[in-house]
Every structure is written in structure tokens, then in C-alpha cells.
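Table 4 source record.
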Amino acid sequence: MIPRELLRKIRQIELRTNRLVTETLAGQYHSVFKGQGMNFEEVREYQPGDEVRSIDWNVTARMHHPFVKKFVEERELTLMLLVDMSGSGCFGSGLQSKRELAAEISSVLAFSAIRNNDKVGLILFSEGVEKFIPPRKGRRHVLRVIREILYFAPWRKGTQVESALEFLIRVTPHRAIAVVVSDFLFPTRPAAAAGLPSAFSVVLRQANRRHDVVAVQIQDRFELELPALGRLVLEDAETGDVAEVNTGDDRKRFQFSEQQRQIQAELDRVFRSVGVDTIRLRTDEPYTTALGRFFETREKRRRRG
């Protein structure tokens, strides 16, 4: 049985995100994500301003004046949400944990999708795939997706984004919008630059060739820079490693923030190199600005294309 507190939280998320979707984002979602192709609708007479490339030369030759083919976009899409369930998602230095923000941003995208008659599926992952919910339509289905993100208890605590992407490629044969919601905190591996797994960029490139992959990175401010609170004992939520850090030492805090900056720069470089768009969110900042900026950027690019 689902706890009453969780039901209340799901309802709050639905109310907040539904208003945002209704007033702003449903139309933007429709305009920036392309359908799977174009369907032929009709042949009609040429009108000033029509693309010359759309002229149907066979009909034009028979009728002795120009006709064009009209196509409409095949709109129905599938939105696949790949959500990180690793131990670090439970962290939050403010009122909201990273997991709660992941549920809220997933809700915004899922409700935008069903408003446009698209399907929504869910892949929960940690070091491997923890749960798969096949794509479906409807409000009740989206509420189940939100509930699973908030309520699901993973078997493992680590992070392996590439396993979720490989699973996506196997179970989703047709092109989909694949939104990876994660903090992208990987275990440090000596063979990987800046702590990024070597397989990550390879699998990410493969997934983005087949699908429209978008990375939503969720961060907390204290993961980027340490607060000056004196000596602290810190435990890694995914590996269990414990370290004592003197946060009162300015040099230690600078070294930490510089290391995080380098890791972020390498992650951004990987995303750019494989052509994956990103949305970077923080638990202490409203997500609407970053989300709106993402939609605006993609819409401008689509118009240019």
C-alpha cells in the first residue's frame, strides 16, 4: 500500500507541473520534437511561396501548370524517461532532494507528451536496469511513472548510465525521445579521464544516432562547492567510502571546486562531441528557466534547419 504522504507528494507534483504544461510547455514540446517522418496528404495547385522542391512534376506535366505535393508530419512520438536511481539521488541540501526534482522534471515532460497524444515509457537504473515500464498513454500511466520514480527502492546504489542506454537501444526499435535524468556522478576509475567511464561516450553516441537523446543533469550546490563548516566526515552514498575533510581550509575547498569544474567540463565536452543536448538543473533553483531556455534553443535550431 502506498503511504499517504507519498500520495500527497504525487498530487502536489501533478498540480504544479500540470499548470506549467497547460500555460507554457505543451506547445513548446510539440514544436521542438519532430515526428518519426512525413506522411503524404494531397496534391494541390502551386501557390506563391511554396517550395520549388515540393513540385510534383508528373502531375504538373499532365495539367500544364504547377502542382505540389503536401506532406504532414507524423506526430505520434514515444518519450522514454531514463531515470537514475543510484544512492546519490537521495541527497539534497535544501527542501528538495535530487530524486524529488527528477520526479518533478519527469512529470513536466510526461504530461507535455500525453497532451500531444504521445506515449511515455520509463527505465529506472542504477548499476544496471532496475525497472522497465513500457510506453503507454494517459494520465493514470503518468502518475504511475511519477510514483515509481519517488517510491522505487533500487537493489544497487552505484551508477552505470551506459547500461540503461544499451537497454534502451534493445527495447525501443523505433526512434524516440530519450531523456536521461541523472546527476552523472560516476565512480572514479583510473582509466577514465576526469572519472568518466570509457564506455559512456561510445554508448551515448550509439543511442543518439538511433534516438533523440537529451541529458537532464541534476546537481546540488554542495556537490559543486563545499560549505565552510570545519571538519566533516563525508560518506559516498554509492560506494560507502568515508573521508574526513577540513572544510574550514580555503585551499581544500578550492581544490574540491576545481576538481568538480574539471569533471563537469569533461562531461560537457562528451555531450557536445556526440551531439546530445543538455539541461542542467539545481535543487536550489527553479527549473522553469533552464527548461524554457532549452525549448527556445531547440526551436530556433529547428527553424534554421
